[in-house]
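Lab notebook, design round three. We kept the backbone fixed and only want residue identities now. Task for the bench partner: fill in a sequence for the structure below.
Input structure tokens:
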């Protein structure tokens, strides 16, 4: 049996600076060993730990879709590990262990409209979800796909080039919004994600909503989804609790009886209603 604590080796192929403050970077990683590439199977929503000797390890949502050749992570520099990662250049090697956790409910979503709502840099696993759903062999299985994605300012939106491509598509309604303009010219909407959701008003019947964002956005998004007719069992959120082992052993990530690393990180709103009140 494979040791779940043993990282596999990944080489940094490309680093993209995502924002003007340079504290958000996307790392495209290639497998050093072909056998690891073949064994690595995942679905959007899952996460993996990245590690650097001497700097430790930390969990990150997988931002690439399964069909994409490189494994992508978008990382905000906040502390010891993320600062060490931000200092690495293409060619450097890092460890990766995973994929861990569950994924978005792709089976349940079949035949239904899908509404994707994200604020800030949590867009990562939802970016992977959109790329996955847009594959021709998958796209035909879903109804209307609406994605509402907001950032504080235009410069803070992730994956800017790809967003431009997605805006041109007729099989995806992509709605971008920013909290403030900072003097930039911006042809899209200005406003907070919950207000923009209200204005776009996707139908809640026969639809699934996937939501990822900072707690304050989540708090104000739920009532709007309820107004639009989304039942709690059809709304899915991804949690980012602090983690140590990632495999349900250490108890660092638990919320009531649930381990976020093993039972999540994706939970339905109906499940979260039964957990302690911080959720
Ligand atoms: C399932 C999951 C998916 C994640 N996906 C991403 C992602 O795609 N991109 C990304 O940038 N980050 C993501 N994170 C958060 C990321 O794991 C933390 O930012 C990282 O562990 C910080 O490591 P560090 O050593 O740089 O910070 P540290 O030096 O450990 O801490 C720096 C500061 O950040 C705070 N902090 C650290 N971890 C967390 C956390 N989980 N929640 C709240 N505050 C925290 C600390 O309290 C401290 O104030 C995810 C976390 C989880 C659990
Ligand atoms: S991180 Fe160890 S039990 Fe979840």
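Proposed sequence:
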């Amino acid at each position: 049996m494979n040791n779940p604590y043993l990282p596999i080796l990944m080489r940094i192929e490309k680093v993209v600076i995502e924002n003007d403050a340079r504290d958000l970077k996307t790392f495209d990683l290639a497998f050093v060993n072909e056998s690891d590439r073949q064994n690595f199977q995942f679905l959007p929503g899952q996460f993996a730990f990245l590690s650097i000797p001497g700097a430790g390890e930390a969990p990150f949502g997988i931002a690439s879709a399964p069909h994409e050749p490189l494994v992508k992570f978008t990382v905000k520099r906040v502390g010891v590990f993320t600062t060490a990662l931000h200092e690495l250049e293409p060619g450097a090697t890092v460890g990766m262990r995973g994929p861990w956790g569950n994924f978005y409910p792709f089976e349940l979503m079949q035949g239904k409209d899908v509404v994707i709502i994200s604020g800030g840099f949590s867009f990562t696993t939802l970016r992977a979800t959109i790329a996955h759903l847009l594959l021709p062999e998958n796209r035909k299985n879903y109804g209307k796909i609406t994605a509402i994605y907001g950032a504080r300012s235009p410069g803070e939106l992730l994956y800017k080039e790809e967003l431009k491509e997605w805006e041109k598509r007729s099989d995806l309604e992509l709605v971008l919004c920013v909290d403030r303009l900072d003097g930039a010219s911006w042809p899209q909407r200005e406003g907070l994600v919950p207000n923009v959701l209200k204005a776009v008003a996707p139908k809640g019947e026969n639809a699934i909503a996937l939501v990822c964002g900072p707690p304050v956005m989540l708090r104000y998004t739920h009532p709007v989804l309820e107004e639009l007719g989304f039942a709690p069992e059809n709304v899915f959120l991804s949690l980012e609790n602090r983690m140590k082992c990632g495999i349900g052993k250490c108890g660092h990530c638990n919320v009531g009886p649930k381990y976020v690393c093993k039972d999540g990180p994706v939970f339905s709103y109906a499940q979260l209603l039964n957990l302690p009140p911080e959720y």
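Keep this in mind before ordering anything: The pocket of flavin-adenine dinucleotide (ligand 1) is lined by residues 47, 58-61, 74-76, 78-82, 124, 240-243, 265 (CB under 6 Å).
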